[in-house]
Amino acid sequence: MFPDDPIPTEATVPDDEPAGTAGDPAANVAHPRRIRSFVRRAGRTSTGQQRAIDELGPRFVLPYTGQPLDWQAAFGRAAPSILEIGFGMGETTAHIAQLRPQDNFLGCEVHEPGVGALLKLIGERGIDNIRILQHDAVEVVAHMLTEESLDGVHIFFPDPWHKKRHNKRRLVQPPLVKLLASRLKPGGYLHCATDWEEYAHQMVEVLSGEPTLANTSEAPGGFAQRPDYRPVTKFERRGLRLGHGVWDVVFRKRG
């Protein structure tokens, strides 16, 4: 439906700027300085991506309202609800949505080229079970998602901020995990994946510290086998060729 586009580096990562949610019961969702679920970066929106935004955005992109989301109205049906924080260029999101047509997927991504790229995939593949919020995911979770409204959360390859002095900028931190856990239904899952081993161990430690969550894996280190629904992306294959590992962490909300 749309011209082929270049594939920029995929990433939606945390920032250490204040997020400004005074009076919010989730005001401590992150570090004392607060985090965003992204860092602003330059990127050109291609012609094909812009056309997808213009033609498909009115149907698939939801406005940020700061009010509880009506999932049935947004998707035109009642179905299990999955949140993805930072979908990059959307290839994984589109793949999983096609593989799991029985589920509704809400993707949060602030970068316009990524939003356009996912909309382009939606149009090309005829996908109907994805909606997009082009807004900071932390604020979306805090203000638009109610308690026990989610069946799953995906956080795939967030920026590792590998320098020790930057670790505090990482997205997966106790306050955000606590907030996400409150939005999960009993039995709902939180699935993180990273190609940075030290961050993977931190993810296990942080999720293990949330008393409402339980690790689905009993393997050494607490890492899970990659679930069948998560594809091996181009980004991941490139890392594996370079000898990098990939770690999946899957926890469930206690009943």
Automatic annotation (TrEMBL):
It is an enzyme of class 2 (transferase). GO terms for cellular component: tRNA methyltransferase complex. The keyword Calcium does not apply. Pathway: tRNA modification; N(7)-methylguanine-tRNA biosynthesis. Substrate binds at residues 163, 195, 233-236. Its EC number is 2.1.1.33. PROSITE patterns: SAM_MT_TRMB. Keywords: Methyltransferase, S-adenosyl-L-methionine, Transferase, tRNA processing. Gene3D superfamilies: Vaccinia Virus protein VP39. Catalyzes the formation of N(7)-methylguanine at position 46 (m7G46) in tRNA. Residues 165-170 are annotated as: Interaction with RNA. Belongs to the class I-like SAM-binding methyltransferase superfamily. TrmB family. Residues 1-29 are annotated as: Disordered. It comes from the Bacteria. This is tRNA (guanine-N(7)-)-methyltransferase. It holds the Pfam family Methyltransf_4. It catalyses: guanosine(46) in tRNA + S-adenosyl-L-methionine = N(7)-methylguanosine(46) in tRNA + S-adenosyl-L-homocysteine. Transmembrane segments: none annotated. GO terms for molecular function: tRNA (guanine(46)-N7)-methyltransferase activity. CDD domains: AdoMet_MTases (cd02440). S-adenosyl-L-methionine binds at residues 84, 109, 136, 159.
